[in-house]
Amino acid sequence: MKRVLIVGAGKGGSILLNILYQANRMNIVAVIDVDRDAEGLELARKYGIQIGYNWHEWIDKDIDIIIEATGKEEILDQIVDKRNRKTVVIPGSVAYIISELFNEKEALLERIKLQMNNQHLILNNIRDGMLVVNNQGTIQFMNKSAEQIVGLSKKDVEGKYIQSVIPATRLPKILRNKRKEVNQKLTLENGKQIITTRIPIIDAEQNLIGAFAVFKDITEVVNLAEENTDLKDIKTMLEAIIQSSDEAISVVDENGNGMMINPAYTRITGLKELDVIGKPATVDISEGESMHLKVLQTRRAVRGVRMKVGPGRKDVYVNVAPIIVDGKIKGSVGVLHDVTEIQALTSELKRARQIIRNLEAKYTFRDILGNSVEMKLALEQAKVGARTPATVLLRGESGTGKELFAHAIHNESDRKHNKFIRVNCAAIAESILESELFGYEEGAFSGAKHGGKKGYFEEANNGSIFLDEIGELSLNMQAKLLRVLQEQEIVRVGGTEPISINVRIIAATNVNLEKAIIKKSFREDLYYRLNRLPIYIPKLKDRLSDLPVLVQHMILKINEDYGRNVQSISLEALEKLKNYHWPGNIRELENVIGRAMIYMDMSQEIMEASDLPELQLDKVETGIRPFRPKEGQPLQDAMEKFERSYIYETYKRNNFNKTKTAKDLKISIRNLYYKMEKYKIEKTDMQ
Question: Is the pLDDT of residue 413 over 60?
């Protein structure tokens, strides 16, 4: 029996389920609907049929027929795209109409069954063919429509055994098993294809009186479906929509010859209907291969392919999808997008983003990718920090994503609806940094604006300020920042009156602040103010398990920037990336992936190891030399060097697993991160 999957359990899906179940000619595998209260799901449970809520989970389960009964074109397109090539897809609109027709027909037949004595007048005036036999299989009645379909007159067949008139009939079987058969296909001796329903006639005492068949020429059913759905009007409307669309559209038949184009297509390519209709799909291509022909061969849609079209070699992006009817490919439809227009819109969007980039946070914790233990710990600490007003200090090497964390912390806090100001302390000259941070009064210095100017802290009032590279501040600026942290107020340059502010400070640095304190280049009191909630962001080489998801995310992002169609990366290429030491961390990884994609072929979908630029592989692990104290060495210095050596040896013994190392040392993982940062302990350290 054919295995059938019904997608959609509304009214149409329920009717189809009932009909197919009663027919008992197909194996209904499951009924699917996203609405868990759909009436069809309840009916399926009653019949003992499996139910589901996501058709993707069933598409590969050896399905012969998929009936799409949602009535949604996008779902039909998705099913056609995902289904096995041997699976037949029946559109819900046609299936629903036919089910409605047969549902009405069954209701009519039930009424006829109750009014057998007065049936002749009624039956001779219905469009469906009807034939009645007694319990011996002898023909008792045949109406006028049946005469026309079968090609025999009533007087020639009445009184004859049914199989002598219609050899392929199954009415004798109905008489034996007393079960009706609904909507069965049958080919008559005259070659006509009919759809027939066969029903036993049973009296009130459950005695078999006979059986009857109601049948319809399939051509008539199709014509009736077309009339009821106004297919001709819909076709006219569809053509009008295509012609009036601003999207450039071209349609080809199953042989790859042009069928239809619209004015927008002519505007972009410069080609008219005379140049395209009836011509091969390659006629409009100046550079690249025909996506129409590729889709016709593969039966799979393609998206975002870049090529040049028309005599003017217009640069375009192309999306092409197959047109599949009853499992057969009938052509393909393509939509062209002018790259010039897209680039103009992209530039405009970038300008808009540039304007607001210093006023609001763009990223959330959902944008921070990674499942490694180290990254999960950092994320948990950051989420704690977001829920408190405490100052946060983000620590980690350059390129690890400290700014991304700052954005996410602000967006997760109760200040997310206020401003998020970003300041790179190392990028602003010392001479103007104070006025930029705290603002200035009118006349404070030569060139000062009339009326003065607000500083970043005032702009960020009730919001957050992100001070990146805070370890680069001078001692003078550190003192002024300490006052802000202690007093929650600032004084403008050239002013005397303090201004109260309510600002959440998020600081970041890749400098070892503990060493800077020892060298007297960073204030110890400011360190303790900033270090209320330190968050250590792991280096890329400490979270190599996150490489696959990071690379996939970067590929999809760079596809948009460079107009590529890369879908994934090979295992060999991924292994090559894992063997590199990544001194530039995430920023370097994005640079490597971007450089690789620049030189890849436009149609290439998988990044191979050969596409990657040359990387210096990192396979040598030298370790730290065991500590041997020197004579006359200060006690504090000796203790620190011993602690550094002991931590590294434990780290190495645990195969560079930080969680196990912290457990062996009987310290917290956060304390281990602090000490490793303090002593610059790495997996591959210098001798």
Answer: yes
Q: What is the DSSP string of 426-475?
A: TTS-HHHHHHHHH-B-TTSSTTPPTT-B--HHHHTTTSEEEEETGGG--H
The full DSSP string for 255-303 is TSBEEEE-HHHHHHH---HHHHBTSBGGGGEEES--HHHHHHHH---EE
Closest CA to 623 of 596, 597, 593, 644: 644
- Mean pLDDT along residues 212-236: 65
CA distance 507 to 133: 91
Question: Is pLDDT at 411 greater than 60 in this prediction?
Answer: yes
Which H or E run contains 25? none
- 8 Å CB contact between 172 and 131: no
Amino acid of residue 342 = I
Q: Which two tokens stand for residue 584?
A: 């530039």
Please, are residues 393 and 437 in contact by the beta-carbon 8 Å criterion?
no
The CA angle 606-609-614, to the nearest 5 degrees, is 135
- Residue 449 pLDDT level (bands cut at 50, 70, 90): confident
Give the integer Cα–Cα distance in Å for 12 and 316: 42
Closest by CA to 141, choosing from 166, 124, 164, is 124
Strand partners, 68: 7
Of the chain, the end-to-end C-alpha distance in Å amounts to 73
What pLDDT is recorded for position 623? Answer: 46
More confident residue, 87 or 393: 393
DSSP secondary structure letters along 321-363: EEEEETTEEEEEEEEEEEHHHHHHHHHHHHHHHHHHTTTS---
Nearest residue to 384 via CA among 181, 534, 595, 576? 534
Q: What residues pair up with 252 in beta bridges, in sequence order?
A: 258, 332
Q: In angstroms, how far is CA 365 from the centroid of its own chain?
A: 18
- Are 158 and 140 contacting, i.e. CB atoms less than 8 angstroms apart? yes
User: Nearest-5° angle of CA 596, CA 599, CA 605?
Assistant: 75
Q: At what angle do helices 669-679 and 635-653 cross, to 10 degrees?
A: 120
65 in Cβ contact with 4 (< 8 Å): yes
Tell me which long-range contacts 257-260 makes (C-beta under 8 A, separation of at least 24): 257/281, 258/283, 259/331
- Residue pair 647/626 in contact (Cβ under 8 Å)? The answer is no
Cα–Cα distance for residue pair 334/332, rounded to 1 Å: 7
Do residues 407 and 420 make contact, with C-beta atoms less than 8 angstroms apart? yes
59-80 average pLDDT score: 85
Q: 201: which strand partners?
A: 210
What are 566-613's pLDDT values in tens digits?
Answer: 899 999 999 999 988 898 899 899 999 998 988 888 778 899 988 898
> What SS3 state is found at 205?
coil
7 φ/ψ angles, rounded to the nearest 5 degrees? -105, 110
Which of 285, 264, 325, 305 lies closest to 94, judged by CA?
Answer: 325
3-class secondary structure, 537: coil
Residue 133, SS3?
strand
pLDDT tens-digit map of 250-305: 999 988 998 889 998 898 888 888 888 888 988 888 888 889 999 999 999 998 88
Q: How confident is the model at residue 114 (pLDDT cuts 50, 70, 90)?
A: low
Assess contact for 262 and 248: CB atoms under 8 A. yes
Length of the chain: 687
Whether the pLDDT of residue 654 is over 80: the answer is: yes
| Choice between 430 and 262, residue whose per-residue pLDDT is larger | 262
Q: Which tokens sit at 563?
A: 């107009």
Task: Kindly state the helix (H) or strand (E) to which residue 161 belongs, with its residue range.
Answer: none
- Would you state the pLDDT for residue 217? 80
Cβ–Cβ under 8 Å, residues 420 and 534: no
What per-residue confidence (pLDDT) applies to 93? 66
